[in-house]
Amino acid sequence: MPQLNPNPWFFIMLLSWFTFLLIIQPKITTFISTNNPSNKIHTPTKTAPWTWPWT
């Protein structure tokens, strides 16, 4: 069964992961901007109970 032979596929997997981690990932993270935390206090909104027309 050729699926059990890891000889070529293991190298391809390692090469693809190293390519992602060393080349592609730093280029992608430069485009992602992080949101700075704000000091705004979150106040919960008050909701009115729903009045069902058939009750």
Separation, N- and C-terminal Cα atoms: 68 Å
Q: Please give the largest β-sheet.
A: none
Helix content: 40-55%
Number of separate helices: 1
Structural write-up:
One of its GO terms (cellular component) is mitochondrial membrane. One of its GO terms (molecular function) is proton transmembrane transporter activity. Keywords: ATP synthesis, CF(0), Hydrogen ion transport, Ion transport, Membrane, Mitochondrion, Transmembrane, Transmembrane helix, Transport. Pfam families: ATP-synt_8. The chain crosses the membrane at residues 6-24. The protein is built from 1 helix and no strands. It is mainly alpha-helical and 55 residues long. The longest helix has 23 residues, at 7-29. The N and C termini lie far apart (68 Å). The model has no long low-confidence stretch (mean pLDDT 79).
For this entry, give a set of tags.
55 residues, single chain, 42% helix
How is this structure best summarized?
The protein is mainly alpha-helical and 55 residues long.
SSE layout and pairings?
Elements: H1 7-29
